């Protein structure tokens, strides 16, 4: 018969594992390199370890700080000072930690023949009940097609096909002022990292992705390919990625009326291109494959790409383009 451990013992074991992880990854050093340093009271390492442990224990931060059930919990003001400091570079901290985990713990276990890739994606961060959150906006939910209160979380991560590790993130508001309920806090120092992140929040996602890529060294992570979905699959974006970074791009293409690809000297939309290329007979999964031009880079060098038309598994009479 299985033995059920008491909650206190489970929490103690979790805290011990978290402490061991923090020590092995030298999180104190990483926090210091990210300008997250002790100003008064408890050290940032202890505060971050406390918050990290609450996530694993599935406890609410606000309720834990308000209640008296955690005698070792830090003061509420100390935690909020840590989270609200505009000079702390949390994106750099996440990147340094993720790089350590990947290079020290994951890459030695991955075969050199296995593909290592970067993945870019955005997801909805809903704040449906909020009213006064800074930069709160109406954002489009791709799943439902509706506009909801909240943000879009743009995330860049590393994967070997089995493991996904986030490297950098950007919390995006809306570029349209009419869609924003709140603006930037005017008291924020414009020289700080926090102000730069707020200015980044009103960029288009196709522009913000390059801010994330600028922080990453793909060669250090043994990644040669960037994957993203059709929301970012514009020729201009693909051309800039392959010309400015040591990366290739694999993505799903979206049928758009004003996006053209050059084939044999003529410009075609994706639908028009499918109509002119030669298709394979029968019920082949790959219907056609063609090399197109996306345009010229800054050095006047032509950027080429291969478009592969495949059969839609859900609707066999339709096609998809990669």
Automatic annotation (TrEMBL):
Q: Which domain of life is it from?
A: Bacteria
The Transposase IS701-like DDE domain, residue ranges: 57-264
One family from Pfam that matches here is: DDE_5
User: Any coiled-coil ranges, and where?
Assistant: none
Protein name, entry field: Transposase IS701-like DDE domain-containing protein
Instruction: Give the organism the record lists.
Output: Trichococcus flocculiformis
């Amino acid at each position: 018969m299985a033995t059920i451990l008491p909650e206190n013992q489970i929490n103690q074991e979790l805290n011990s594992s978290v402490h061991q992880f923090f020590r092995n990854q030298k999180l104190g050093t990483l926090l210091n390199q990210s300008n997250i340093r002790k100003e008064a009271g408890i050290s940032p390492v202890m505060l971050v370890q406390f918050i990290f442990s609450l996530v694993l224990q599935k406890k609410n931060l606000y309720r834990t700080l308000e209640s008296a059930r955690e005698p070792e919990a830090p003061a509420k003001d100390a935690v909020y000072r840590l989270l609200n400091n505009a000079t702390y570079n949390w994106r750099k901290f996440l990147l340094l930690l993720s790089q350590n985990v990947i290079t020290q713990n994951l890459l030695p276990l991955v075969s050199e023949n296995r593909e290592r890739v970067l993945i870019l994606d955005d997801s909805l961060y809903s704040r449906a009940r909020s009213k006064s959150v800074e930069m709160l906006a109406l954002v489009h939910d791709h799943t439902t097609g509706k506009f909801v209160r909240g943000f879009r979380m743009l995330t860049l991560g590393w994967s070997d096909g089995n493991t996904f590790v986030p490297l950098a993130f950007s919390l995006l508001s809306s570029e349209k002022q009419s869609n924003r309920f709140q603006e930037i806090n005017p008291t924020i120092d414009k020289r700080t990292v926090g102000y730069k992140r707020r200015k980044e929040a009103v960029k288009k996602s196709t522009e913000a992705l390059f801010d994330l890529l600028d922080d990453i060294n793909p060669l250090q992570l043994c990644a040669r390919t960037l994957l993203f979905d059709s929301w970012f699959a514009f020729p201009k974006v693909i051309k800039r990625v392959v010309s400015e970074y040591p990366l290739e791009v694999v993505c799903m293409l979206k049928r758009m009326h004003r996006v053209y690809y050059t084939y044999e000297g003529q410009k075609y939309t994706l639908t028009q291109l499918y109509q002119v290329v030669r298709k394979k007979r029968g019920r082949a999964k790959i219907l056609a494959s063609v090399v197109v031009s996306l345009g010229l880079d800054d050095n006047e060098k032509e950027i080429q790409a291969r478009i592969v038309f495949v059969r839609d598994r859900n609707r066999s009479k339709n096609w998809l383009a990669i």
